[in-house]
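for ur thesis appendix - GNAT family N-acetyltransferase. copy paste whatever u need, i formatted it the way the template wanted (i think)
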Amino acid sequence: MNKIQVRIADWQKDNADIRRIREAVFIFEQSVPPELEWDADDNVAIHFLAYEGDFAIGTARLVLDGQIGRVSVLKDWRGLKVGDALMQAAIVEAQNRDLKQQMLTAQVHATAFYERLGFKVVSEEFLEAGIPHVDMVRDSKEMA
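the 3d part is after this line
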């Protein structure tokens, strides 16, 4: 396996890869309705793509209020730290933009993953697209 590379993506130029990954993970695997997957934040968010070689295998986005979301890795590449690489890229970008706090809405089964990265659960469990979620927050100043 090649080393995983993450770069900032261009929503327009990299749209096909971002859509391919998010559709595979959220729409097909998790049955999220397409109208809930795509939103106005996509046009303004900073997107990230993870690659193995020249093949895009994961994506995430950072909205300029510090919200990290749409973290998704294709099934065959899970467990290989691709999600860690995407999250680290998003956190660094948030810090570079002086966003003191990063927030996300996590699927409950993924909370331990985000806790390893310094996020804390700040809400009760709730359903989003029929999937149990919690809100989580990470303060940059606490992690410095």
